[in-house]
DNA sequence: TTGTAGGCGTTATCAT
DNA sequence: ATGATAACGCCTACAA
């Protein structure tokens, strides 16, 4: 049987209030009683029941984390940041996998707030409007990951995807590329990575390079799809000199396809990615990519949610973290 | 303000017990009252407070998951299995990152059981004896992942690492290799992967191939270390014809080194891995490796812990899942 | 079938 | 400084 505060009180010959006081040092307790109670807590191995505590305090010290795929390379690194900082503030993390499915997301959003989590860190591939409305109405504070939601009033943290894509496209152009394919995530405006398209477009326009719609395709976050797209470029005989993939994984899909079909990377085709997941520097050739401070994204997100929980003001509703273009072996000047 | 069972009772003009009964269908309720209460629950959006419920039921419907590194490729895939099956049984997952540090592990083990989790899925790189003793004494049920603990009375799930390594070594030998390096994880007997060494040894012995201690090194789970080891083989002029790494990631470290130094894989050196993480078939050359049913390992583990929670008997204390040697492009006959 | 009341383990507000 | 006691929201004998 678990020992409770009552047991301790009884054995110490004091009231439970006193025991509570020494546990929480919420009010002064005479040092001899403090001694006694402490030693009894020690010997009985008493630990306060956090559930009972939550009930009266109305605080669960739980933060829900909703992600579309735990095993995703990018997300795993973010989770590290979330978990570590959460623990630092004495919060535990409840992890939920949504598969990016809208219904699952709403279901879990409900479930979590019913479970009395104090806040929710939310990440998804596609932030549909329905979801935004839903979240805005929730009482539990939510922060979004990897979403520039200046227009929304939901706090969020991410890099400046638009600018990063703009820089990457410029980099390719400055290295002599004109036929630059873009492998986007999805068609949807509300999907993760839409800003990349805008950045790409702007760079091309500024350099007066006409946009070739045939070179803009959708990889749906999948390595395999990206592989197929690249194969299509080959088959359709429109292989560009550079491929800009919206994620490192899709960049690798493209490179794999190229290598499998006898093309040299980067000698014949430059391929660049986005995110700089660990894999980007493990894979050969190393990926030229946009470095995101992935761990920090998680860390900042959970810090924001904790601030929201404590009703502290956020410096800014959207936190934009710095990115960096990293040139490695998968791209070259032509 | 959150609506409680009292509010519902009041508005329905019944007692809270009646409301409780319709929520849990624990006892018969006349259909008209049932109607009424239901509709009020509907319109108020009442949701039972799981914390209050936990307190009286002494069940939190929470399962703790302790892993050494969330962002590890192998672990991410396991988490998918854990999360999905957990949800299926209406359990939530509390995720903790231990970094494989003994003190952290013990700390979290305590923390979790204090948090009233009903069970714990535990994974670590090094299962020190101290930890085993500790776990055996815990009241909260624990199941170990990826550990053949026939000798322990702690339930566990994994593949037959010994047999898998034996098969892999045999495979290499049958393909003409005699100089086979083994990149182990760590020196420790209690570390994850010790059985691989035994399997390797047995295969060599059976084929009367003398064991060359210079070819057995320790990569400590790290790609970088494995890279360095391979570099050492080159520098010391003892590069074998085959390298058997205890993990896919370390196999990739070895291959990267080989490629960087102008060696052809698999033409000059065969390199094989272990685990078959997603990356194994993404990386080029594709890795010959031991396939583990990674998702299932997580799924089985959580099923076991749920059985333990419900005090149902386990068919077996150790669950050994099937593995498979997958031959891909990183190895060849010589 | 329905309601009353006690209890789950804490914290917090009163008195004392 | 210490001790009763009332919450917190829910479940469950027991009574009616």
Explain the overall architecture.
By secondary structure, chain A is of the alpha/beta class. Chain A is built from 13 helices and 12 strands. Chain A has helices at about 5-10, 15-25, 30-45, 50-55, 75-90, 100-115, 130-135, 160-175, 195-205, 225-235, 250-260, 280, 295-310, and strands at about 60-65, 90-95, 120, 140-145, 155-160, 180-185, 215-220, 240-245, 270, 290, 320, 325. In chain A, strands 2-1-3-4-5-11 form a 6-stranded parallel sheet, with helices on both faces. A 4-stranded parallel sheet of chain A has the order 7-6-8-9, with helices on both faces. In chain A, helix 7 (about 130-135) links the parallel strand 3 (about 120) and strand 4 (about 140-145). The mean pLDDT of chain A is about 95. The interface of A and B includes residues 55 and 70 of A. Chain A binds a DNA duplex (16 and 16 nucleotides) through helix 2 and helix 4.
């Amino acid at each position: 049987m678990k020992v409770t505060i009552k047991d301790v009180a009884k054995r110490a010959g004091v009231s439970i209030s006193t025991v509570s006081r020494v546990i929480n040092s919420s009010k002064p307790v005479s040092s001899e009683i403090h001694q006694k109670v402490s030693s009894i807590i020690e010997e009985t191995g008493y630990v306060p029941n956090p559930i009972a505590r939550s009930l009266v305090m109305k605080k669960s010290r739980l933060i829900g984390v909703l992600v579309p795929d735990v095993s995703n390379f990018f997300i795993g690194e973010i989770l590290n940041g979330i978990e570590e900082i959460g623990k630092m503030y004495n919060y535990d993390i409840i992890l939920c996998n949504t598969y990016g499915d809208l219904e699952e997301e709403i279901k879990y959003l409900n479930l979590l707030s019913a479970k009395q989590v104090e806040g929710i860190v939310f990440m998804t591939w596609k932030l549909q409007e329905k979801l935004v409305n839903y979240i805005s109405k929730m009482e539990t504070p939510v922060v979004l990951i990897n979403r520039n939601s200046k227009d929304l009033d939901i706090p969020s943290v991410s890099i400046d995807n638009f600018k990063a894509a703009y820089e990457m496209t410029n980099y390719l152009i400055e290295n002599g590329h004109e036929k630059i394919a873009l492998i986007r995530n999805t068609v949807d405006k509300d999907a993760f990575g839409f800003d990349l398209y805008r950045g790409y477009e702007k760079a091309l326009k500024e350099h007066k390079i006409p946009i070739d719609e045939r070179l803009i395709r959708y990889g749906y976050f999948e390595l395999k799809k990206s592989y197929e797209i690249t194969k299509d470029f080959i088959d359709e005989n429109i292989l560009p000199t550079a491929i800009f993939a919206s994620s490192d994984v899709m960049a690798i899909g493209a490179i794999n396809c190229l290598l499998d079909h006898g093309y040299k990377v980067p000698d014949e085709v430059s391929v660049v990615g986005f995110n700089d997941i660990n894999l980007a520097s493990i894979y050969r050739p190393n990926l030229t990519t946009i470095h995101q401070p992935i761990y920090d994204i998680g860390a900042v997100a959970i810090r924001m949610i904790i601030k929201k929980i404590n009703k502290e003001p956020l410096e800014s509703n959207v936190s934009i973290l710095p990115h960096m273009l990293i040139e490695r072996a998968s791209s070259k000047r032509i």
